[in-house]
Amino acid sequence: MSSIALLVSFSPPSSSSSPQFRTRTTHSPSQFPFHFLSRRKQAGKVWADVKSEKHVPEPSSKYQDLTLHKKAARALDIGEDVEDEETSTSISSSWWEVFPKRWVIVILCFSAFLLCNMDRVNMSIAILPMSAEYNWNPTTVGLVQSSFFWGYLLTQIAGGIWADTVGGKQVLGFGVIWWSVATILTPVAAKLGLPFLLVARAFMGVGEGVAMPAMNNILSKWVPVAERSRSLALVYSGMYLGSVTGLAFSPFLIHQYGWPSVFYSFGSLGTVWFCIWLNKAHSSPLDDPEMLPEEKKLIATNGMSKEPVKEIPWRLILSKPPVWALIVCHFCHNWGTFILLTWMPTYYNQVLKFNLTESGLFCVLPWLTMAISANFGGWIADTLVTRGVSVTTVRKIMQTVGFLGPAFFLTQLSHIHSPVMAVLCMTCSQGTDAFSQSGLYSNHQDIAPRYSGILLGLSNTAGVLAGVLGTAATGYILQHGSWDDVFKVSVGLYLVGTVVWNLFSTGEKIID
């Protein structure tokens, strides 16, 4: 016989609303054996204790009596203490409060980069009706397309310095609202004249130029080492999906509402994001008053950069071989990546004989593949780190795949004559390229978490230069050679990057 039944057998018959019943139900079942044994030694006191509580007033209504009965019955049935209804309601309605705050920050950064590439690629679609309306020649079209990089190149290092000294929240927020306003003003600037349009596009580049260093600074403070690859892969996949979204929706908006609608609608989304960012984000977990202590402790004990930067040790930073490995390998990586992403529609049209619609459709495939493989690579990298593989080994493995994978698939293009196989090779090339998010792009936070924004600014400046020079050099090579020559240059740089990375990179902190 259970202890509860035994206790009830010693009790006098009473209704469920009696004071005696209420007294018994104040104990959980796990307490009943000890309660009963202690009372059994004082048999005469059991009834005295029960009778002594007869002064407790009866419930004022049948509803209160029934509620009390249900509470007592539930406590007896499930073995829990009677809880206040308001407490349980509060717990059930605030589940989002226990959602990891660091992943809220990661998701907000992901959405910022989604908007970043949406606003960047919309010009590549809108430039067609714009050039027809304003009678631009190809040289002018190229000037408009390149004006974005003027501002983008200028703010890489400056954005990193600003983020590391002021805080990533302010810098990323500034970047998004700046480039969103510049996007909204693009149609107005185009109507005012070409110089105003060039300035507007350069201003947009200024805003987007600070985004990557600021994001790197934020995640270096918010994300533990064992989750670094996954978080960065998710954020960078926002760029890939942003390109897909921009390429997919821009033609529809232009067809339905005219080319200015692309800039108005995409830019407005940035202002919405900015309002959410101001209310939810903080530069560091230490600044977040709503963060749970358990999560704050987890981040603090797993590689969080705590102290703000007051002085930048430029000589120390530039004296480290792993820093130069980052810069050189970022250049090698972006040369191949920017060439493929910039010239791919031309390659599809001239070599594979796709029409413009088909070229645009097939251009989406590499972006989708990169979004998927980047997150897959991030999961692999974090799993290896969690299982005890050194961060250095993981970074070298992932970046070697990010270099040798594209190199291999590009070498196959000269032997392929089927358009389907050529598209497959290009897609696989970009898919393996995305493993770089868990190698090269994660390494800034590994070697110098306090200066990760500055490091990304340095290496991404080299990456942007590679994009500008590589895009121009490809045109020159095609004028005097062939596509095979273009791919040979990219493959050569991928191989150089592989050697440099495996010789000089590290996953250990080299700068405090």
From TrEMBL:
GO terms for molecular function: phosphate transmembrane transporter activity. Residues 9-19 have a biased composition (Low complexity). It comes from the Eukaryota. Residues 105-509 form the Major facilitator superfamily (MFS) profile domain. One of its GO terms (cellular component) is plastid membrane. It is found in: Membrane; Plastid, Chloroplast. Keywords: Chloroplast, Membrane, Plastid, Transit peptide, Transmembrane, Transmembrane helix. The chain crosses the membrane at residues 103-121, 171-190, 196-219, 231-253, 259-278, 323-344, 364-385, 454-478, 485-504. It is a multi-pass membrane protein. Residues 1-30 are annotated as: Disordered. PROSITE patterns: MFS. InterPro entries: MFS, MFS_dom, MFS_Na/Anion_cotransporter, MFS_trans_sf, SLC17A9-like. It holds the Pfam family MFS_1. Residues 20-30 have a biased composition (Polar residues). Belongs to the major facilitator superfamily. Sodium/anion cotransporter (TC 2.A.1.14) family. This is Major facilitator superfamily (MFS) profile domain-containing protein. It comes from Vicia faba.
